[in-house]
Amino acid sequence: MQPITTSKERIYGLDLVRAIAILLILSSHSTILIFPDSELKSIKFIQFFGTVGVDVFFVLSGFLIGTILIKHIDLGYTKSQDLYRFWLRRWLRTLPNYYFILIINIVLLLCFKKKLPEGIYSYFYFTQNLIEATPSFFTESWSLSIEEFAYILGPILLLFIAIIFKRVTKTSFLVVTICVIIFFLITKIWLHITNLGMTENFNWSHSFRKVVITRIDSIYYGFIGAYLSFYHSKFWRKINKLTLVLGIVMFVSIHFYLFKSALNPNAYLLFYNVFYLPLLSVNILLFFPFFSTYKSKNNKVVVNISLWSYSLYLVNYSVVLLTIKQFIFVSDLSGFNKLLILLSYWFLSFMLAYLMFNYFEKPILKFRDRNINA
Fold first, then answer.
1. Chain-centre distance of CA 245, in angstroms?
2. What's the pLDDT band for 4 if we cut at 50, 70, 90?
3. Is pTM, for the whole model, over 0.70?
4. 244-266 burial, b if ≥16 CB within 10 A, otherwise e?
5. What is the pLDDT of residues 45-93, one digit of tens each?
6. Which of 21, 51, 253, 337 is most enclosed, with most CB atoms within 10 A?
7. Which Gene Ontology cellular component terms are annotated (predicted)?
8. Domain coordinates of the chain in residue numbers?
9. Dist. CA 62–CA 221, nearest whole Å
10. CA–CA distance, 246 with 241 (Å, rounded to integer)
11. What distance separates the 2 farthest-apart alpha carbons in the chain?
């Protein structure tokens, strides 16, 4: 069986999207480090758009993994052993880094003589934020839980279709994708109507935005993009500039209104719980016809940031930022010293990501590509 994807098939436009997303996240975390208690609108603005970086990753991941699943379907690789190989390749991409950083977080907590959180075992099964608010320990893990469950759910549904109907088609893929999106949209509505867990101290970001059962659909908007780009490639390329303009207009319009009207999530739960996150995912998807077909001479810096992005995401906050805060009370420093801390944060994050990618992540990926070809 020939490999469905290889590392040589990189699309520069998507590398650019990935680099932008991780830089948004790092910028947001920078404000948390240097201005933790600031109420300035400019700081809140940076923090808010840092969170959008994670949503970009969701749609991007859905687009890439959806394309791989479509290629499986197109080649007839829809038996249980084929999906097992799909999962195995995916898990070798995500799990080693995740568990490595999880263990480092546990060791750091013990070194700082702090108590391990209750239910620490749940982190090993990605259930720490399945239906409840994401814990304060290893907070980056919330998005990885959502992705892992999303990548289990879709293939399982496709496997059921293969067992029942003896075959899986492109229509099956599209129907499953739409059904998953609709189901989790209904879940959002139900949670909002029942006010489940929305107490007086309800924190929308931790208790809704970062919970698996409210966010799985974010991945599947990327699946829709994968379907259109694969089966309707001419149309996908034809509309790339139009959707880029529509995406910019939609993004600016929504967020200009949010900031102008000061729509706080906890005060406008109906909008944020039911409408905002799906609208944001659709908005991000509008940029993909342009970036997935964008051709340019590869910029080495952009490609490297893209390659290191997963490691950067895992190390920058809990390993680097929180360790700095453990030893230095940044709020008491002068402006110049704050700048030095900020530069140190970025340098350490990139240095550790570089080391992790080259000496841990990359060897595992090479092992995977040599031994698991589906």
1. 24
2. low
3. yes
4. beebeebbeeebeebeeeeeebe
5. 888 888 899 999 999 999 999 999 999 999 988 888 888 999 999 999 9
6. 21
7. membrane
8. 7-371
9. 7
10. 9
11. 68
